[in-house]
Design brief:
Layout: E1 26-28, E2 31-39, H1 40-45, E3 47-53, E4 56-62, E5 71-74, E6 90-97, H2 104-117, H3 128-136
Parallel strand pairs: 2-6
Antiparallel strand pairs: 1-2, 3-4, 5-6
């Protein structure tokens, strides 16, 4: 701040900073949190996915059998520390997307998988409304 009257000490400088929300990243202190939507098949079988960070592209390894809510941490890819060295972390939260629209072949394959696993599922929808919906598509 400015020098005080009659040769007094320098005053304080106050800086107010407002951080606008980012459309993709959410801030938690010095950490950044982001959701990565992964198709059900990639979550079940495993995949390596390119993911755009603030610093460039990183590869997210999605192990076989990944469930929604799993978090992958990238150390030092978050917000820089204001007073000192280092940065926070980037936390990528996995969200497994279940398909809502299936082709007949996809549905048949999932029913075969359910049979192999011994999982009970609803029978195929063969009513009038189902046939009407299919005709409209």
């Amino acid at each position: 701040g400015a020098v005080g009257p009659r040769g007094g000490g320098a005053g304080d400088l106050y800086v107010h900073v407002q951080v606008r929300p980012h459309e993709r990243f959410e801030r938690d202190g010095f950490d950044l949190i982001c959701d990565l939507h992964v198709p059900m098949v990639q979550a079940a079988l495993g995949a390596t996915i390119d993911f755009e960070t603030l610093d460039g592209v990183e590869q997210v390894v999605v192990p076989k059998g990944t469930q929604t809510g799993m978090v992958v941490r990238f150390r030092g890819k978050g917000v820089p520390h204001v007073q000192g060295r280092g940065r926070g972390d980037l936390l990528v939260r996995i969200v497994v997307d279940t398909p809502t629209e299936l082709s007949k072949e996809q549905e048949q394959l999932l029913r075969q998988l359910a049979d192999l696993q011994g999982v009970d599922v609803d029978p195929p929808d063969t009513g009038f409304m189902s046939r009407l919906r299919s005709a409209i598509r």
